[in-house]
Design goal:
Distance between the termini: 76 Å
Helix content: 40-55%
Radius of gyration: 32 Å
CATH class of the largest domain: Alpha Beta
Oligomer: single chain
Strand content: 15-25%
Order of helices and strands: HHHEEHEHEHEEEHEHEEEH
Number of strands: 11
CATH architecture of the largest domain: 3-Layer(aba) Sandwich
CATH superfamily of the largest domain: Periplasmic binding protein-like II
Shape: rod-shaped
Length: 309
């Protein structure tokens, strides 16, 4: 079977002539000369091996092969235009799948809902795959290429190769305790008042920085924390603290959790804050990631301006 080589420009030339049924008007539409257009149409017919147009001095008409070829040529040109548009939109981060990780405390603050709302408003055709994960798991997933971007609670330490972290904000910390506790009616707490208390904390190795912050604040106050209970979920810690099983150190946005007997008391110690950071591939990631970070930076810049007023 003879190999056929037809270029897209030949299809565009033929469609113009087939729609105008006049070589002069088709040439003007294509911004080329009439003789070169005629030569290209003859070359196309030779390549296809069929007469596509009937030509006389008075008229140009489609043959039956020409009518069939016109239908397919239009489909090919439309598909090519769609493919080109899809590629350009992908390069601008407007289409595709974006895999986003976030820590469990993020849905209770305004950052994640505001970010997702703004991003979806600007890029409605991007499919979002959201995954609640501990910080260390997010960092490992970004390094492995199974996660595109992470919203993490990073408090320092070694990062996996190929991952960068940038702080974008922070949340104040609170002590969570039961309503019958001696400090339950306080408007604020300093860690020097908590010596001898039992604490509820996350298990070691789950990938959140709160245990490190707890140890640091206790050490600065002159004592070591006494861990009486561990729980992997912050909401579980809130419930256990409300039951009087110990004190929990958690980000202030979790104070929206309303449970009987639970009190959230702000901590006033220096550095009693929990950083929020964005974790990204060191090479910058895809256009989807770049567009997401652009939206994120716009929101966090607005937050910083508002905070400085």
């Amino acid at each position: 079977m003879r190999k056929i080589s037809v270029e897209l420009r030949h299809l565009r030339y033929f469609v113009a002539v087939a729609e105008e049924l006049n070589f002069r008007r088709a040439a003007e539409r294509l911004h080329i000369g009439q003789p070169p257009l005629s030569i290209q149409i003859r070359a196309l017919e030779e390549e296809v091996g069929a007469q596509l147009l009937e030509r006389t001095k008075r008229r140009v008409a489609l043959t039956e092969p020409g009518r069939r070829f016109l239908e397919r040529a239009r489909e090919i040109l439309a598909a090519t235009a769609n493919a080109t548009d899809e590629a350009r939109r992908a390069a601008r981060g407007e289409v595709g799948v974006l895999r986003i990780g976030f820590t469990s405390s993020l849905p209770y603050a305004s950052t994640l809902p505001d970010l997702l709302y703004a991003y979806r408003g600007r890029y409605p055709e991007v499919e979002l795959q959201l995954k609640e994960m501990f910080t260390n798991d997010q960092l490992a997933a970004i390094a492995a290429g199974t996660l595109d971007v992470g919203l993490v609670r990073y408090v320092g330490g070694d990062l996996p190769g190929g991952v960068v972290v940038r702080e974008i904000g922070n949340d104040p910390l609170c002590i969570v305790l039961d309503a019958g506790h001696r400090l339950a009616e306080r408007s604020e707490i300093h860690f020097t008042e908590l010596a001898g208390e039992g604490f509820i904390s996350f298990p070691s190795g789950v990938g959140t920085g709160l245990p490190d912050i707890l140890r640091r604040l206790c050490r600065r106050a002159g004592f070591a924390p006494r861990i009486v209970q561990t729980a992997r979920e912050a909401t579980t810690q809130v419930a256990l603290a409300g039951a009087g099983l110990g004190l929990a150190l958690l980000p202030a946005p979790l104070s929206c959790i309303r449970l009987p007997r639970v009190r959230f008391i702000p901590v006033v110690d220096e550095d009693a804050r929990f950083a929020l950071s964005v974790a990204l591939p060191a090479h910058g990631g895809s256009p989807l990631v770049a567009a997401f970070v652009q939206v994120l930076d716009g929101l966090t810049a607005g937050d910083q301006v508002a905070a400085n007023r």
